[in-house]
Write a sequence for this structure.
């Protein structure tokens, strides 16, 4: 979303529009808020009405409604990012247009001051941040409006994106965040392994499936944070049982040919043999893993 709204990715036909929309707006959080939601609102002054971001925005708003302009209203099918998100976009857009880069290490040293409502923007030392006073005040207004946005400014993948698009300069803080921006610890073993050419894999991405809920607390069984709902767990167990049952019948037919009574000792013997065969040769893992 960061890359799209700054004209660095997304629909090629709209990148130029994104790259200059809001370029000449004053850094006034109240004014931008009015443009988005005021009596005489005109969101097109701040953003592009780009339908291609709808799928991405739905996922983002599902897991954090604070990113949505209509936060608290339960509306996820929205094109409109929150005023805070668009305001950060406008500030970065203008700095990048001037060829200026934010000094993240020095800026994050001011984290407590940005979050403290009793500290005025003119009391924050700008040295090393490469921010002007108007930008620091603007950023503080954004953080005061939604303090949770500070966590996004510190997120490894977002800092990595900021660096790749030229919004921040390289320093010790950025380098550390980039090194942390990886999914290696959450990899699924079956994806890492060399696949059998005849095998079929079905991957369910929990971040885009409504049957998963994100938990901020640590749960050993779900290290990625996405926990399946009980109905999904039961559905996958039923699916596994059904697939194994069908496979068992197919193997029995191939191995023995002739059919016998389901209740006969011979059928029970066949079932036991095939079950042992399946357990020895198939890797049947829970579909709810990770």
């Amino acid at each position: 979303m960061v890359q799209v709204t700054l004209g660095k990715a997304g629909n090629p036909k709209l990148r130029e529009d994104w790259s200059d929309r809001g370029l000449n707006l004053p850094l006034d959080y109240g004014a931008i808020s009015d443009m988005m939601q005021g009596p005489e609102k005109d969101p097109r002054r701040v953003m592009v009405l780009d339908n291609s971001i709808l799928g991405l925005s739905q996922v983002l708003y599902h897991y954090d409604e604070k990113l949505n302009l209509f936060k608290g209203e339960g509306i996820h099918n929205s094109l409109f990012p929150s005023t805070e998100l668009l305001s950060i976009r406008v500030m970065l857009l203008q700095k990048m247009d001037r060829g200026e880069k934010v000094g993240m290490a020095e800026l994050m040293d001011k984290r407590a001051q940005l979050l403290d409502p009793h500290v005025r923007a003119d009391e924050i030392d700008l040295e090393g941040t490469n921010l002007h006073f108007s930008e620091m005040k603007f950023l503080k207004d954004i953080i005061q409006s939604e303090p949770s946005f500070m966590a996004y400014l510190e997120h490894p993948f977002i800092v990595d994106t900021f660096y790749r698009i030229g919004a921040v300069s390289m320093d010790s803080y950025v380098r550390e965040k980039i090194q942390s921006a990886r999914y290696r610890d959450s990899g699924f073993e079956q994806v890492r392994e060399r696949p059998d050419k005849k095998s079929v894999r079905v991957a369910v991405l929990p971040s885009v499936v409504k049957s998963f809920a994100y938990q901020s607390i640590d749960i050993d069984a779900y290290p990625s944070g996405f926990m399946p709902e009980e109905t999904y767990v039961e559905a996958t167990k039923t699916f596994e049982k059904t697939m194994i049952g069908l496979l068992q019948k197919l193997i029995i037919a191939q191995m023995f040919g002739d059919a016998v009574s389901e209740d006969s000792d011979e059928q029970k013997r066949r079932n036991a043999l095939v079950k042992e065969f399946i357990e020895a040769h198939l890797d049947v893992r829970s579909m709810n893993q990770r």
Q: What stands out?
A: The two ends are 25 Å apart (CA to CA). The mean pLDDT is 84. The CA atoms of residues 186 and 224 lie 6 Å apart.
